[in-house]
Design a protein that fits this description.
Blueprint lengths: L2 E7 L3 H9 L9 E6 L6 H15 L6 E6 L14 E3 L5 H11 L5 E6 L5 E7 L7 H15 L3
Parallel strand pairs: 2-3, 3-4
Antiparallel strand pairs: 1-6, 2-5, 5-6
Helix pairs in contact: 1-3, 2-4
């Protein structure tokens, strides 16, 4: 699949404010990468998330949080790090973002938000298995950081 460039869409902003109100997010501090994994995260989803974290670690100037949208708990699937935000079940934010992501009608997706909640880039597909997908994600975040430094 391919990357889709958006123009700072604000359709998720109310949803992100709800996540902030519930204590999951803090807008204005870092970029947000929302990864919609398979409902039961598989080895490929896990591998992509780990590759993405490593790529972000290698880019010291970028600060990004990784929100994983999955139906199953992530305990033990990924390392426990402060920038990983699993969606806790039964919170209004978790239910609403799952519903919003389901409207894409793709199995998996990656959404890149600026620190203030505007959506700039999206990737949708069936698997998170493209060899350079984690690096591409960081490259788009770097591009966004140059374009919108504030």
């Amino acid at each position: 699949m391919t990357w889709i460039r958006l123009e700072g869409e604000r359709e998720f902003i109310d949803l992100l404010h709800l996540g902030e109100k519930e204590g999951l997010l803090r807008l204005g501090e870092s970029y947000l990468v929302v990864v919609q994994s398979h409902p039961n995260p598989c080895k490929v989803c896990r591998s992509f998330c780990i590759d993405l974290l490593q790529a972000l670690d290698n880019t010291a100037s970028l600060k990004a949080n990784l929100l994983i949208a999955a139906d199953s708990p992530l305990q033990g699937m990924l390392p426990e790090r402060p920038e990983i935000i699993p969606l806790p079940p039964r919170l209004p934010f978790a239910n609403r973002i799952q519903k919003s992501l389901a409207e894409f009608s793709f199995d998996v997706s990656i959404l890149l938000f600026d620190p203030y909640g505007s959506l700039w880039f999206a990737w949708v597909g069936d698997e998170l298995d493209a060899p350079s997908l984690a690096k591409e994600t960081v490259q788009w975040l770097s591009y966004l950081d140059i374009q919108c430094p504030e």
